[in-house]
Amino acid sequence: MKLRSVFAIIIIFMLTQGCSVYMAAKQPDKKDVSVFNIGTPRQHVIAEAGRPLYTKEHADGTLTDTFVFVQGYSSGAKAGRAFFHGAADVLTLGLWEVIGTPVEAVADGTEVKVQVDYDANEKVQNIIALAGDEALKGVDSKGPRPEVQQATKIMEADESVESPKMAGIQQDAPITGVGLRSEPTKVSNRSDISAMLVEYNFFELSRNTHGSFINDMVDNNDGTVTDRATGLMWQKSGSLEQLDNRGAKEYIKQLNSKHFGGYYDWRIPTIEELASLLSRKANQGVHMAPEFETHQTSCWSADKCDTPHDQVYNGYWIVNFKQGQVHEAWFYKPTQAANWPSSQIKNETNYVKAVRSVR
Fold first, then answer.
1. Helix-, strand-, coil-residue percentages of the chain, each rounded to 5
2. Could you write out the DSSP letters of every residue in 65-125?
3. pLDDT class for 52, splitting at 50, 70, 90?
4. Domains in the chain, number
């Protein structure tokens, strides 16, 4: 009887505390991608995929929608995975979490970005997979419109030779007046990150490979660089070593106390601001404009993200400039650090590249 009671307590504890069980059950749902097949009415596509990120109306009156969503798992698959993790927790007295939680953190669905062209009757005429095309296998597609094919050829041209046309765009018509959010917030959904990258046309190696935002960098020759396209002044370098989140905030305090560059309003950038520095062309192996030093390969943002267990972790978005990607960083809350293995943290330390607004 006592043995049964012990096992009952263990089962209840593992099912309520196990990160992998919770994460498996909360994985995103699987969408029916067959709605993207040719001939499907637009309202059916929207009902399944959700509201499009944006819609473009062409000169002939036809529409093109761009959707961003995470392709997840069926209810049966999620229940099966949660049951497996729960059973493994019981059999290993909780040690399975060392393996199960990182596995669920990685296997959290496929982010899909798809462009859908409609005919005059608002029925699917063609789809173009912009990201996550493996989740759209079997869906009818005729390939990009001619104008999209031409744009793709231009953007994928050898970047080692700058074309006169692109050079003219940067010199004669720099983008000005782009206002990026400067107040920190929590960005819970990865799709919101993708939407932001697309909205501002920021390059990102996995979410927006054709992004081509045009910065207008000026080296101030005082350890700072100003981007006239965004109205932001940046550190040319940044912290000399990787810091945890608390250390990053302390680093900013020190910059301001020393009046670095003659200013005392430096701060950690939001993910929008930090992503604006991503460059399609790598500079010494780092996807960042050549005006910057390349030592700071991954940097903190001030924006929070979701974590596997918000009662246990703090989470922030970061940009890994070496990989050219936006990632999450998770680390234990001070009250939880002693209760969990270090294997369950993610990108715990990063560099700091401070920013200030100059508008």
1. 35, 25, 40
2. EEEEEEE-B-HHHHHHHHHHHHHHHHHTTTTTHHHHHHHHHH-S-EEEEEEEEE-TTSBEE
3. confident
4. 1
Tokens of 95: 């040690």
- For the chain, the residue count is 359
User: In this structure, is residue 249 part of a structural domain?
Assistant: yes
Closest by alpha carbon to 208, among 111, 329, 70? 111
Query: CA separation (Å) from 301 to 5, 41, 313, 318?
Result: 47, 41, 17, 5
Q: What is the C-alpha separation between 253 and 264, in angstroms, rounded?
A: 9
For tokens 């981007």, name the residue.
Answer: 227
Is position 239 within any domain? Answer: yes
Owning domain of residue 265: 181-359
| Torsional class of 50: left (φ above 0), alpha (ψ -120 to 50), beta (otherwise) | left
> Cα separation of 268 and 357, whole Å?
11
* Cα Rg, the chain, nearest whole Å: 23
- The H helix count followed by the E strand count for the chain is 10, 13
Closest CA to 266 of 358, 357, 356: 356
Full-model pTM:
0.53
State in Å, rounded, how far the first CA of the chain is from the last one.
72
Q: Does 307 fall in a domain?
A: yes
- Rounded to whole angstroms, how far apart are CA atoms 4 and 273? 56
- Residue 257 falls inside a structural domain: yes
Per-residue pLDDT, 341: 55
Distances (CA, A) of 196 to 2, 87, 254, 294: 56, 40, 31, 25
The strand order across the sheet containing 298-304 reads 298-304, 313-320, 325-332
Q: How far apart are CA 270 and CA 264, in angstroms?
A: 18
Q: Which residues pair with 218 in a beta bridge?
A: 226
Tens digit of each residue's pLDDT (9 = 90 or more) over 284-341: 889 998 899 989 999 999 999 888 777 777 889 999 999 999 998 888 777 655 555 5
